[in-house]
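User: Quick sanity check before I run a bigger batch. Here is a single chain. Can you write out its predicted 3D structure?
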Amino acid sequence: MRWLTSTLVLIFGFSFSSPTAASLVDHGNTTIDTISGLEWLDLTQSLNRSYDDLVGNDGTNEFGPSGDFRGWRYATINEVFDLFTHAGIPFINLPSGAVENIPPVMALEDLVGITFPGVAPASQGITSTPVATTIRQVGVLQITNGGGSGIANTLNFAIRDAEAFPSVGSWLVRSSAIPEPSSLILLSGGLVGLGIICRRLRARQAPRG
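Assistant: Done. Predicted structure follows.
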């Protein structure tokens, strides 16, 4: 029985271990962060919509049952910061960005959508975090200096609650119940292995004529 116990420990230990690499999963218009368990709506889905418009300060709550963004909510600036970190961006809130940021910033821009195209493409979104009364922080991803640096900034850009711009979306999130694909594969493999072990054990214990 000792070999059986050891095998089960190995199977389930391996099945439920989830690597932190490649933690962001593309689901079309949304991105799953398997570390935080949050699902992120692409910024391009909320362009030119103000904070007041979405939360209902203008009379219509777009997060409500009949709203355009039912079930979603604004992300905090710290949640955006965590998303940048989980995307593998090494330097955040540097004024001029960094060369090391370029590949992960470009990859995350591709996932969440570019709101400001051109020579310095950017992904810009409003958060729920206030800077002052009726002013919110904006999380920004951008490739600047002709592709010479990558910016992941959560501090130096703010927007008034009533303002809307065609180049600015909103960082919207909801809880995700979708497990990491690699974990599903490992768990399935573990269950198959467990089934094989049980069959062999029953075969050994069966009476022989």
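Confidence is low (pLDDT under 50) at residues 1-21, 182-188.

User: Great, the batch can go ahead then.
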